[in-house]
Task: structure prediction
Amino acid sequence: MEHKPKLIELTENLVDIKITGFVLVREGKLLVSYSAEGLTDKGFEIKYEGIDLKLTYESEHEISGKKAEALKEFIIAFINSRANIYPGDLTSSINIIDIVTTSKSVDQFLPEIVKALTKPDRFDYAAVLLFNEALMELRGVIYAYRSNEKKVFKNSFMTFKIPMYEKDDLSDIMFFNRTKVVDLSKVESNVPITDYFDGPVLATCIGRGIKPIGVILAGKKNYCKNDIELLDLYGSITFLAIEYIKVLKDFDLSSQKLKNLKEEIVYTNALTKMGRLSATVAHELKNPLVAIGGFARKLSERTGNDQLGGYAKMIVSEVVKLESIVTDILEYSKKMVMSPEYINARTLVEEVVHLLEEKIEHSGKKTQINIYDEFDIYVDINRFRQVLINIIDNGLQATPEYGTLYINADASIDSVIISIADTGGGISQENLEKIFEPFYTTKAKGTGLGLPLSKKIMNAHGGDLVACNYEKGAVFSIILPVPGERK
Amino acid sequence: MSYKVLIIDDDPAIRNYYTELVESSGYATLTAEDGESGIEKYKEEKPDLVLLDINMPGKNGLETLKEIKDIDENQKVFLLTSEVQHKRNFISLYADEFIPKAKKPEILLSRIKLHIEEMK
Result:
């Protein structure tokens, strides 16, 4: 025997009839089909918000008038009360999950949520608002309402804001992850709240834990238990979707980073090999250079100031240049061991400036040092002096005649920054990217190792050396970490 | 029966200071050194009031506040702050009081008394 659905049993008992045919179609999907033996001459049809029901019955009396109306309303109420457990709705919930897994962005996903919530028999309107914790406000993202089966989206909803300065029903929803009917009539907002939400609204939270993401609001005339469960489910699905999309994006970003890192490692390995090779070459060159230089010096002493003596002197001066390149290369490729100690920054900077003053004697160039008297730094003094000499010397070279080079010091919680700012007009973007690469130089006289070596020394201090431009020139910032407790 | 105050702070000096202060007013105290053990103590002892530090290693004050309010929405919880002005955040809307640690002890005691009076 065919199983008799509950609705049919109830209807039969209620109006004392024998149902002989019952076909329920909802949104084009056949939900219930039932037939029983008997006459099929009496019956009626119900068409209501996507529900299409044909019913035939056997009875001594025709059901008509008020009784028929009451029966129709009873059947509709029964179907709607079971709305969310009907297969049709289950399918659409599964569709939403499909959309989650294929959505590339939150913007793509949220319209689907409000569309699904405003299907017939669900809600008259639905909206998603996201929470901005920095501003402590809920901001409208998307709003949809159903009128004559046609959905209308309001762009103006994007400017709709609800401040969250204190506890209220909406904040309770977010704090306790609740789903319940709230009265928004007293809620403060920048646009009258009744423009969007009239009467009691069902609200659910998007988010878990201490970082709520937002709320979904949905409205209709009366709410039943199923509506609450449905919206609660949609709140959870939306939270999952937003988290899922975020995780996917993070994953893409990390993969990209990893890829870049791999390329960097390959590049660094190549550089390391090159470095080792040049160190070997430099080492092998050093001894012959000493010999060449020595003999050339002897030659020049013996020959005096004639032409041959001039040649010998040229050899000597070129050898001196070669030796300094070789020393720089060896220095650059060596592993640096630092022996830091405390020293007054101002004293050290003044010492270096004094050393370089001779070079700028007749150029009218000036230096201006702005460093507090009691400003101690923790550095390997010789190495750090080398960095200062290099950067300040470069800065002075870039400074135009009668220009000023500014040397400032600043301290933050975790670092000390000594910045050397010239007024030479700055460094081109192309050069800025390359000046810390070994052997890259823009000067006629230079090994292209000064800045890389300085950067290496700063890195060995746990700090850094960076360059950027400001309106008048270039700034080199020597960054030092603040050491732990001073012993 | 005297009222119980649970003090959750990772700094032992602060715990001792508040313990003495609160006991001097005739309330019983319980202490915990982090959020996790604070919540355990809370479940066991059901104190009348919780004094909760915000910055703690592990579960911080805000997470702890959320968990306590999830257990009992009406539980009175005071957040102890060390910053001059605490950054606004959503969860802190649910603290019953903000007590800057640097403030005079009388202020804290008067707030405690007020909330406990309310409960009577």
